[in-house]
């Protein structure tokens, strides 16, 4: 119903904000990570999701559209409602959550308050095939690469590990913390294979 609402932040509370738009105050639930970036009286655009239930309506909001898109995927997972999805997005960024799903890392997802190990595993199973990991892979490479040549080396190593039968998530997890400042692609592939053998 609402794609986004733009207005002035009138109130901030532990659950979210009241956003004034043309004299109407919209009560919007936000993830904790977003609340820390907001100040009273600031102008804000919030991408929204309207939940309709028998006992009333609830608005949930996000500062980025990609957060809203991931929220919609999360509430499609059995056992996760809007508050559970907000809890997950309150402790993990979009890229961190995508990477955790790609890597099958239920411990990271279960860090969210109210999310147990079984629910975290369900998130991984349900969303692994619904998420585009290309953006996450690029973001992880960018954050670890100090320059373009490092990016190229990591990319080539991941492609080589893919050819050996490992997924991009497994390959990235194996090489992401390695210091590649003095490594060739071949060195990185060998080091990645060692890491994978230890798992």
Automatic annotation (TrEMBL):
Protein's UniProt name: Holliday junction branch migration complex subunit RuvA
Lineage: Bacteria, Bacillati, Bacillota, Clostridia, Lachnospirales
Description of how the protein assembles with itself and partners: Homotetramer. Forms an RuvA(8)-RuvB(12)-Holliday junction (HJ) complex. HJ DNA is sandwiched between 2 RuvA tetramers; dsDNA enters through RuvA and exits via RuvB. An RuvB hexamer assembles on each DNA strand where it exits the tetramer. Each RuvB hexamer is contacted by two RuvA subunits (via domain III) on 2 adjacent RuvB subunits; this complex drives branch migration. In the full resolvosome a probable DNA-RuvA(4)-RuvB(12)-RuvC(2) complex forms which resolves the HJ.
Family stated for the protein in its record: Belongs to the RuvA family.
Domain note: Has three domains with a flexible linker between the domains II and III and assumes an 'L' shape. Domain III is highly mobile and contacts RuvB.
GO CC field: cytoplasm; Holliday junction helicase complex; Holliday junction resolvase complex
General function of this protein: The RuvA-RuvB-RuvC complex processes Holliday junction (HJ) DNA during genetic recombination and DNA repair, while the RuvA-RuvB complex plays an important role in the rescue of blocked DNA replication forks via replication fork reversal (RFR). RuvA specifically binds to HJ cruciform DNA, conferring on it an open structure. The RuvB hexamer acts as an ATP-dependent pump, pulling dsDNA into and through the RuvAB complex. HJ branch migration allows RuvC to scan DNA until it finds its consensus sequence, where it cleaves and resolves the cruciform DNA.
Localization terms from the record: Cytoplasm
GO BP terms, alphabetized: DNA recombination; DNA repair
Keywords: ATP-binding, Cytoplasm, DNA damage, DNA recombination, DNA repair, DNA-binding, Helicase, Hydrolase, Nucleotide-binding
Keyword Membrane tagged: no
Positions of the Helix-hairpin-helix DNA-binding motif class domain: 72-91, 107-126
Origin: domain of life: Bacteria
SMART domains per the UniProt record, alphabetical: HhH1
Record's keyword annotation contains Membrane: no
Gene behind this protein: ruvA
